Amino acid sequence: MIQRRTTRVICVGPVRIGGDNPIVVQSMTKTDTSDVPATVQQIKELGYAGCRIVRVAVKDERAAAALKEIVALSPVPIIADIHFDWRLALSSMDAGVAGIRINPGNIGAQKRLLEIVKRARQDNVAIRIGVNSGSLEKDLLRQYGGPSPHALVESALNSIRLLEEWGYTNVKLSLKSTSVIDTIVAYRSICEKTDYPLHVGVTEAGTIFRGAVKSSVGIGVLLSEGIGDTIRVSLTGNPVYEVICAYTILSSLGLARRGVEVIACPTCGRTQMNIVSIAEEVERRLAGVDLPITVAVMGCEVNGPGEAREADVGICGGRNYGLLFRKGKIIRKLKEEEMVDALMEEIQKIVGTKG
Questions:
Q1: d(CA 131, CA 226)
Q2: How many CB atoms lie within 10 A of CB 307?
Q3: pTM for this one?
Q4: Residue 44 contacts by C-beta under 8 Å, 6 or more apart in sequence?
Q5: Contacts of 353 (CB under 8 A, 6+ apart)
Q6: Phi and psi for 175 in degrees, rounded to 5?
Q7: CB 229 within 8 Å of CB 187
Q8: Each residue of 83-133: pLDDT tens digit?
């Protein structure tokens, strides 16, 4: 069992982060924030998938002006992502956001940061100091010869010292790099120097496949060491996949469970039917089911009821037929075209049993 690092607790709206609270899954909208209907729709899709906090890009006053309506319609707390213009942070807080993400590398002079902190204190708005390898302070880049893990840590600590001097501690930290190794080293280092909760992720990880792999390695290693209070998987694509990937990482480490877990064999020369398409269809039809059960889709008698006996329910393929089983016990024989429907019916029975 993973022993999580002890951190202080902060609040992002009603969501508590740190301490012994569950690890919080976050994501970010990909819409133009000034397009309220599109942004709210994406936030609702993310919330339905299990995202507990959503960040939106506030790039100009039009986006800031849209926030009040977005916040009012959102099912989850909203964090405003601010770069360059400190005044957008103030406008976002006026609109009622629960959190602000600022990057010390591009927010400007200390007096601007102080104005943000003063306004955040007024309504206890959480602040994330989001250090990023792509936008570190120029003096740190010169000192360390580039965006090294040590530079990321020093940038975060410099900002923390300032906020503490101003008496503000409703803060979480992130130190993200495009390098998985640099990300791991930076988070390991910062957690030895401060007890603020950590938002963990690999920045600009890439497309769905490559980004999921990089994020799973980077986030997974840190979580396995007890490091991380909230996570975001950064993928180029539909942000709902970020949430799915995040929960898959957490589930694989025994740190959280959401929805149905579908296990499927990789297939081989023994496979007699199109298990790939069957498994994809099962995943698609179970996407909205939030029930802690395991469903198996197996390709043959080798990877059938025997190897998948711990699954709550499953199907396995043979030559032009399949088997439906529960906890390794065969229930009935099926035609290939009946398999998915029969599996869904059996899952519905389990859903009814569990209330």
A1: 21
A2: 16
A3: 0.87
A4: 74, 75
A5: none
A6: -135, 85
A7: no
A8: 888 899 999 999 999 999 988 777 777 888 888 999 999 988 999 999 988
